Amino acid sequence: MRILVTGGTGYIGSHTVVELINAGYEVEILDNLFNSKMEVLDVIKELTDTKPVFHQVDLLDADKMNEVFAAGNFDAVVHFAGLKAVGESVEQPLRYYENNVVGTVNLLKAMRAHGVSKIVFSSSATVYGDPGVVSYTEDLPTGQNIPSPYGKTKYMIEEILKDICAADAEFSAVLLRYFNPVGAHASGLLGENPNGRPNNLMPIVMKVATGEIAELSVYGNDYDTPDGTCIRDYIHVVDLARGHLLALSHIQPGIAIYNLGSGKGTSVLEMVAAFEKARGQKLPFKFAPRRAGDLAEFYANPTKAEAELGFKTELTIDDAMKDTLRYLENHPRSAE
Questions:
Q1: Cα–Cα nearest to 8, from 28, 23, 22, 34
Q2: What is the rounded CA–CA span in Å between residue 50 and residue 316?
Q3: Measuring CA to CA, which residue among 235, 229, 99 is closest to residue 178?
Q4: What angle do CA 26, 27, 30 make, to 5 degrees?
Q5: Can you say whether the dihedral through the CA atoms of 138, 143, 147, 149 is positive or negative?
Q6: 55-64, 112-121, 181-190, 323-332 — which is least confidently predicted?
Q7: Confidence band (pLDDT; 50, 70, 90) for 196?
Q8: Average pLDDT, the chain
Q9: What is the pLDDT of residue 333?
Q10: 82 touches 7 (CB < 8 A)
């Protein structure tokens, strides 16, 4: 099968490309390099002995995207491309709706025009909003109390895909919802390397470790959790990439929805302690006021993904920290 991976030079996308190639898929990448680097292609080649065909194209450029599809003869799409900074989306909502939603509509129109009817969509567990429970299952309602335009764009794209599947019995879409990917490839060659200032916990931890940021800010230490800090579901990026591979291999006409996660939560302070243990030295941090919209605790329930896809996380938080440090050794200024 020939697969187009949008956002395939990004953090999750690049790890998924490696898994796809190693599983025997023929892969092409479409990415505008807004939050990734061209050098990732050389790393993919080193890890797989294959350098994917690369198209530097923005999803908002419908004409160029159609050219890619006209020449590609793709069997399916794995769709990662999109803006993802929660705080930035609050400040720039129109930019996020245009890039993520309009860009995806352009992608889907190109797929339909060229006879591609299978897509695996990298969604987010933020579509659940605040359902009032800690363990999130796929049957929970979505679209209510979503705290950011970023999360709302994921919800809107899910609804678009559901409508397409309802209108076309031959169209196949898998929606994968997850929370916080962490870690790096075990080789230390591939990892998270965002352009600009990072927004998620681990890229900030990496910047603190390299001295680029003086200390980590832990937002809130008075939550109703064992250590007072927020608890989240962190999943190793390689496990997450394998989840996308499993979804692609099980894709069927219609809509399918799966949570990908470990099924348990880890607090911010536990993440810091795990990094300190792997590194062998303390990480400077300070407590800061709570951030608006942060919930005390939630994590994904992956029972359905295990039953139907055979998905189960194999790598631990300790593995993620060791792999992250290995990546940092190879990229000491990794978050520049």
A1: 28
A2: 28
A3: 235
A4: 160
A5: positive
A6: 323-332
A7: low
A8: 95
A9: 60
A10: yes
Which tokens in the block code for residue 235? 């999943």
Burial per residue of 29-50, b for 16 or more beta-carbon CB atoms within 10 angstroms, e otherwise: bbbbeebbbeebbebbeebbee
243 φ, ψ (degrees, to nearest 5): -65, -40
Tokens at 114, concatenated: 């060229």
CA distance 89 to 152: 10
Class of domain 2-182+234-261: alpha beta
In the DSSP assignment, the letter for residue 85 is -
Q: How many helices (H) and strands (E) does the chain have?
A: 12, 15
Listed in sequence order, the residues at least 6 apart from 199 whose beta carbon sits closer than 8 Å to its beta carbon are: 84, 85, 86, 87, 88
Among 11, 97, 150, 223, the active-site one is: 150
Take residue 20 and report the two structure tokens written for it. Answer: 């796809």
d(CA 156, CA 123): 10
pTM recorded for the entire structure: 0.96
The verdict on whether 150 is a catalytic residue reads yes
Give CA–CA dist 83/88, Å, rounded. Answer: 9
Q: What is the pLDDT of residues 237-273, one digit of tens each?
A: 999 999 999 999 999 999 999 999 999 999 999 999 9
Contact status, residue 62 vs residue 87, Cβ threshold 8 Å: no
What distance in Å separates the CA atoms of residue 275 and residue 281, rounded to the nearest whole number? 9
The span from the CA of 52 to the CA of 17, in Å, is 9
Judged on CB neighbours under 10 Å (0-12, 13-18, 19+), 220 is middle
| Pick from 61-70, 72-81, 189-198, 209-218: least confident | 189-198
Counting every residue written for the chain, the total comes to: 336
Residue 216's nearest CA partner among 279, 152, 305 is 279
128 pLDDT band, cuts 50/70/90, is very high
